[in-house]
Amino acid sequence: MSVAPKRKTVAENGDIGIDIGLVTAITNGEDLGPIVRHAFESGKPEALLHQLRTIVKKKEVEIEELCRLHYEEFILAVDELRGVLVDADELKSMLYSENFQLQEVASALLVKLDELLELYSIKKNVTEALQTLKVCMQVSNLCLTCNQHITEGRFYPALKTLGLIEKGTLQNIPVKAFRKVIEKQIPAIKLHIEKKVCSEFNDWLVQIRSMAKEIGQLAIGQAASARQREEEMRACQREAEEQSHSGGGDCVYTLDVEHIDEDSVLEFDLTPVYRTHHIHTCLGIEEKFHDYYYKNRLMQLNLDLQISSTQPFLESHQPFLAQIAGFFIVEDRVLRTAGGLLSESQVETIWDTAISNMTSVLEDQFSRMDAASHLLLIKEFVTLLGATLTRYGYRVTPLMDVLDNSRDKYHELLLNECQKQIADILAHDTFEQMVMKKEYEYKMNVLSFHIQSSDRMPVFPYVASFSSSVPDACRIVRSFIVDSVSYLSYGGRMKFFDVVKKYLDKLLIDVLNSSLLNIVHGGTFVESQAMQIAANVAVLEHACDFFLLHAAQLCGVPVRVVERAHAGLTAKTVLKVSQNVAYNALSNLVNSKLDEFMALMNNVNWTADDAPQHANDYINEVLIYLDNIVSTAQQILSLESVYKIGVGALGHISDSIVTTFLSDNVKRFTISAVMSIDNDMKMLESFADERFESTGLSELKKETSFRDCLVEARQLVNLLLSNQPENFMNPVIRQKNYGALDYKRVATICEKFKDSPDRLFGSLSNRNAKQNARKKSMDMLKKRLKDFS
């Protein structure tokens, strides 16, 4: 009873590790081939055998139980079991046989399997190597591409390639040594690129400095062309205004627009600047290049601002200023297009440095100038420089201030030159009427200055009323106006007409008028020359209107403004005064010559008994001289001037006749002498009347005629020939017939009057009653004049 449980325990313990599937398969009689194959494939046939033994033992226990319970059946079962054992032995043999065969077959397969596994390992290594090689090849290709870009000078793609290597593939390189080489070369390549672009930029600095002068000259040339077009437009405007003012036909206006693209004309390459700036930006050292650019350009400017010490400034000012203009045109383009390479404050700082230096140079050079034309030439170029740089937004006010501050110096030089020229033409002028044989001469010397006396074209040869110095002086004045306007224009001042007018007055008064007065006061000329000088002054006074109009036209001032009475030149009034000075000088010359002729009155027989039948000799000389003077004056002077000369001469003759009666050379005179003087007076009066009418002076409607200028001498002769000279004391008669006579002078003359010459026994001679009455009346006059005195 005790054995059975023990076996059960053993049997139960033997159940441990039995595969349920195997048991089920055996129980169900299924094919155990797959299980056996699996056991061998997994390399655990012993386990299968152990399980099979365990199953066998288990089955044996079960068999024993069955046998014990079913003995007979057990016997039968034992027999069957023995058959099973035999089958099992056979199966075992078969298993061993199959296992042996399987081992034989599997050993070859295992060799193949080992080979296959080794191939798998090789494949894996090769794949990894290929991946590594692929990465390295990519990096190598990028390096080659980068080198190619650098070789071809394409630095931006080279940097982009470096960026791809540095940020994209560098960390993925599996070969550490290769990665370290790449990491070491990247900074070197960047430094190489930086040096390369800096080298190109340095070459550009040299090139652009050599081109700056050409750039500046081209830009200034454009400004000059624009100024020329503006002047042509103003000329057309003035012409249209003149036509409108003169009542001409309708004016046709056209608009001519010419657009010039500055960038297309001013061609210069900034590519090296852009590229260098961009490369430095890509390298992350943008500020470094900003500072490098600014310092190098500032050094170049300082070199450009140094004037040549071996060349006169007059010759070097254009390249000097053109170089500066080109410099700042380039800087303006860089400021606008280089993407922040320059700031506006930096450009302003550079410009302030340049303009400060330029103003100092100009002030120094202007102070040394001794020729107005030199100063004007430099000024013209400076204003063109200012106009050019103003287009680019630069402030040029200090430059214009220098020109304004030098305008007095310029006009002083210009006035000195004009003074020398005017003095020269006056010194070489013979002061004879100018003869023009051709129409072009008339246009050049008369019409061009509006000094014609008539709007009709004269018959040639034409004898002008002025001498050759007048058109020459007008040309000098006109040239002065042009030069003055040229200096004052385009300097920022919009209204400079008043300034031109001031300097024009200064020229006409201090130079031209003073030179004429010096000639007048010199007194080394004859009457005809003095008359010609007076005529010249009158013509020049008339030309002042043209000078003012010409100045206004050049200044763009409307004609209506100039024609206002208060807008005239002060010089016109001064020249009018100088005309009077010239007339006085002429009058003095005429009077001096007349005095020479009137001195011949001393040859008159003042104590003659009989009245002469003819006029005295001196009066013929006087009349010939007067005729010559009036005829000459009529040719070159205005009627007003002829009137002045005639009145002055005849008045002087009248005064000279009266003075002769008063002179100590005439101790006494007779009625016959008075009668001879009366004859002379009649000839003078006849001449005066004829000339007053023939010259057209009567049309002037003057209150005093030529005859009236002889009134004092005529009234004196009439008084001395009067039958009742005592009527002089009658206020009414005296006012009517003797109003020009002075009491004292009449008293002195009457004291010298003797009715007849003293003769031996003269008191015994017979006198008619008329003579006695005249004598008594004269004696009464003398007495009453004495009492009056």
TrEMBL record:
Matches recorded under InterPro entries: EXOC6/Sec15, EXOC6/Sec15_C, EXOC6/Sec15_C_dom1, EXOC6_Sec15_N, EXOC6PINT-1/Sec15/Tip20_C_dom2
Predominant location: cytoplasm
Record's subcellular location: Cytoplasm, Cytosol
UniProt keyword terms in alphabetical order: Coiled coil, Cytoplasm, Exocytosis, Transport
Alphabetical list of Pfam families matching this protein: EXOC6_Sec15_N (PF20651), Sec15_C (PF04091)
Domain Exocyst complex component EXOC6/Sec15 N-terminal span(s) in chain numbering: 51-220
Domain Exocyst complex subunit EXOC6/Sec15 C-terminal, chain residue ranges per copy: 398-752
GO CC, one annotated term: cytosol
Family: Belongs to the SEC15 family.
Function: Component of the exocyst complex involved in the docking of exocytic vesicles with fusion sites on the plasma membrane during regulated or polarized secretion. Involved in polarized cell growth and organ morphogenesis. During cytokinesis, involved in cell plate initiation, cell plate maturation and formation of new primary cell wall.
Protein name (database record): Exocyst complex component
Organism per entry: Elaeis guineensis var. tenera
Gene: LOC105042172
